[in-house]
Amino acid sequence: MIQVFVDESSVEVAPGSTLLDAIQAAGRSVPTLCHDDRLTPAASCRVCLVDADGNGPVAACSTPVRAGLRIGLATSASWRRDGLRAVVAGLPARALDVPGDRSELVRLCEQLGVAPETLPLVSGSRGVDHSHPYVKLDRDLCIACGRCVRACSEIQGTFALTLTGRGPDTVVAPGTGGLWSDSDCVSCGACVDTCPTGALSEPGLLDPRPIEQWTRTTCGYCGVGCTLDVATRDHEIVTVHPASDGSVNRGHACVKGRFAHSFVSSPDRLQSPLVRRGGELVPVSWDEALDVVADHLRAIHRPDAFAVISSARATNEENYLIQKFARVAIGTNNVDNCARLCHAPSAAGLATTFGLGGGTNAFDDLDRCDAVLLAGSNPTDAHPVVGSRILQRVIDGARLVVIDPRRTELARHADVHLRPRPGTNVAVFNGLAHLLIRDGMIDEAFLRNRVAGYDELRDLASDYSPDRVSDISGVSVDELVTAAHLYGDAAAPAIFYGLGVTEHLHGTDGVRTLANLAILRGAVGTATGGGVNPLRGQNNVQGACDMGALPDLLPGYQKVADDTVRQRFEAGWRTSLPSTPGLRIPQMFDAARQGRLEALWVVGEDVLSTDPDTASVRAALDACPLVICNDLFLSATAQAANVVFPVASWLEKDGTFVNFDRRFQRVRRVVEPRDGVRTDLEVFRQVAARLGVDLGCATPAATLDECASLAPLFGGISEQRLDSDSALHWPCGTPDDPGRPTLYLDRFATADGRAHLAARPYLPPGAEPDPSFPYILVTGRRAEHYNSGEMTRRTPNVLLRADEPLDVEPSDAAALGLRDGDPVEVTSRFGRAVLPVRFAAELVPGQVFSGFHFPAAGVNELTSPLGDDVTGCPEYKVTAVRLRALQTTIHGPTR
Ligand SMILES: Nc1nc2c(c(=O)[nH]1)N[C@H]1C(S)=C(S)[C@@H](COP(=O)(O)OP(=O)(O)OC[C@H]3O[C@@H](n4cnc5c(=O)[nH]c(N)nc54)[C@H](O)[C@@H]3O)O[C@H]1N2
Ligand SMILES: Nc1nc2c(c(=O)[nH]1)N[C@H]1C(S)=C(S)[C@@H](COP(=O)(O)OP(=O)(O)OC[C@H]3O[C@@H](n4cnc5c(=O)[nH]c(N)nc54)[C@H](O)[C@@H]3O)O[C@H]1N2
Ligand SMILES: [Mo]
């Protein structure tokens, strides 16, 4: 430590600290404008000038300490005031009219007594750029401090901004020149959040009226689980700020969590229950709708003629109550959730391999990893805050292997990018295992002491020579070897993966053969390794599974088929429980088509848009006598239902979510629910009451307590604790258990305590291209929209992306006579869709890509009903299609 003096007091700081750090360590402060703790210092604004050893001014934010240095604060106050005056002089008076809660500059002027009337203010003439729906630039308010530019590169990693002009004309601008809306900006909001003057602002903040309330909650879009502080006025959301102490996001957010909130007050929100009468859905009172449902449910012939799809968008408490409703009020295990379409292979694969169905490590373990293997995951679009943190690790020196057929954003930053043909992961992972073994990159002691199945895997892997794997997958031998060594030679490698691994005919094998690599390398269940981490999708898909919204598992992954487990729940719930596992989502649809289902309740899932092979889903809903749907909007599924309940969104209710790395976090009501809507929790309790069943669980807090009392994995979790500790990783068994961010440090949770290697052969995908269907369609995510798009399409995100394009590799497009924007007919063995073409150099020829965020585009008309052989997860990533240009364009010079 180094001793320095701040005025007369002595303080010790670490070598490399700045004077600003020392001043703060001494409990004192100096003003700053161009400084943000998260960013490299710029030392451009001069409002932090202090005296060093009596020798005159230095910038506190950037000057390093040296032993014995005397920092003079009292003697230098006038320099700082002069520095501030110099910054403000030359700004228009408007700059000081910005409300103080939106401008550090205004607050500083008040604090240092810099009054506008004493300044040579100018009129301002540089104009605004309001082209972007969310980020609004007023150039006259810009002080060229460069915080936005640094935030864009050092937090977000997009490098979209620059400072242009000279002297007093220097101003922030998109690096591409031109308008903000045409720039590389990904609308994360980091620039707006760090701007100290309001030069960068957003629509809600342009309104000067004061904010009335801030509420802390957890984002309800993806599974990252960003902590958000939401500002409200008159029961409307003004702005959303990523919390700087957010346990996952550390002050960052993305275009959805940060900006896409206006769906809450969309005029399209359902505000009254609907019941189908004479073919039409008509508004009815809540009592009437609840009675209709209860009457029908009372009349079903067998408990198993009822099934419910629970919602990974809803809270833990709601999921807990929904599975309890199915099991207690109806008496069936027919409950499932959209994990089935998503990471069911992760739950199955990881549970078999390690014992528990969640990711093995805390996301923060990334900070100590020197290599990342990212397989079938596109986090800069789908988990942007995670994507940014991975990118920053790579910029800081970690090595990166990306395995993805497409050249994603992170692939561009990778040391090596393997581009397997879709559906050939297992061959690639076995090939990497072959190389780890062949080249001695395995941890033999770890294998001996903590692992089962090594001999079988070694025998199997011997068949996966680089040449053979290259033939199967199209990945070159050199790239395979490089990737194996980047992972195998790293001191602390981590694996992150996504749907490019799971949504396949052999998705569970994909997960298990990927996990093999971490086990061979001893990089899981150890203090150095980064483990195997699925980037789970929905805000609460981990929680929906944790809460037992699954046909074979009760809350806390306890098997319904296990007599002891069932007896405990039977005692707790004072009822008898069905012992045979219920139907999975695809089996529910089969049962409906075969006339075996009398009622299907779909909660917060737009199955007609997002489940595969829409035609067969439609047939299932048509065949089921009663379809009930809980949603915010009249989704495609709601339109096909017999009863629709309008429900509250995550911004309108209390409870908890569990994010992708097993973190319980609080969800808090930010605004009152829209008129006429109720929470999913209330709806299920009220129907149960009409069936004569008291489900208990009167409040979210009581529900979580009941869950904790029955599920040892969550025994120590309560709302009260989450209000003080903010996040708890399960397993967390008792009220004083701090939770376990990194799993298996002592032993794996399998019956024998060992990690189980999987000797699984490569098997081909369900669809292969042939002369009738020569292209492979891969479906996945776009950054601006979320799944069915029901929410994001009802926000200004539609201005960022207004339709569902089909990405086509330019040489393929040329061969088909397609130009950018032309409509193209896509036909698969299951259906047809028409989409506009987007030229996409990130694809290899022969593959096309689309999102599924605009149901009207009908992408899931195309996808196949085939699914993972272990879990039934659909093969969304491999559909054979043919393409036909619909409109012949005249190719020639435009006049
Ligand atoms: N903006 C946005 N964010 C989202 C969502 C959203 O809809 N929009 N949805 C959320 C949900 S529910 C989920 S589950 C997550 C999903 O997040 P991701 O798993 O990242 O999503 P995808 O884009 O579906 O697929 C990831 C990648 O898999 C690649 N891939 C396809 N086939 C193969 C293959 O055979 N092998 C390999 N190695 N890779 C392959 C694709 O090219 C794609 O880049 O995102 C969540 N976040
Ligand atoms: N082609 C293709 N299709 C896919 C995928 C793919 O990669 N390719 N990915 C699949 C994956 S991984 C997933 S997870 C699914 C997601 O598919 P879905 O779960 O169907 O999609 P979402 O749009 O997230 O949510 C569905 C509905 O929930 C409503 N909702 C939001 N919050 C709440 C709430 O609190 N309560 C209730 N009751 N409703 C609410 C929304 O308004 C929306 O209508 O899509 C799958 N479909
Ligand atoms: Mo998902």
What topology does this entry show?
Elements: E1 2-6, E2 9-13, H1 19-25, E3 49-52, E4 57-59, E5 70-72, H2 77-88, H3 104-112, E6 128-129, E7 136-138, H4 147-156, E8 161-164, E9 171-174, H5 190-194, E10 200-201, H6 203-206, E11 213-218, E12 227-233, E13 236-242, H7 255-259, E14 274-277, E15 280-283, H8 286-299, E16 306-309, H9 316-330, E17 335-336, H10 344-354, E18 371-375, H11 379-382, H12 384-395, E19 399-403, E20 416-418, H13 425-438, H14 444-450, E21 451-452, H15 454-461, H16 466-473, H17 477-488, E22 493-497, H18 499-502, H19 507-520, E23 532-534, H20 541-546, E24 553-554, E25 558-559, H21 563-573, H22 585-593, E26 599-603, H23 607-610, H24 614-623, E27 626-631, H25 636-639, E28 643-646, E29 655-658, E30 663-667, H26 680-690, H27 700-710, H28 719-725, E31 727-729, E32 755-756, E33 775-779, H29 797-800, E34 806-808, H30 810-816, E35 823-828, E36 832-839, E37 847-850, E38 879-885
Helix pairs in contact: 2-3, 8-26, 9-26, 9-27, 10-19, 13-16, 13-17, 13-19, 22-24
Bound molecules: ligand MGD (2 copies) and molybdenum atom (MO).
The site of one ligand MGD has 36 residues, from β27.
Protein name: Formate dehydrogenase major subunit
Domain 2Fe-2S ferredoxin-type: 1-77
Keywords: 4Fe-4S, Iron, Iron-sulfur, Metal-binding, Repeat
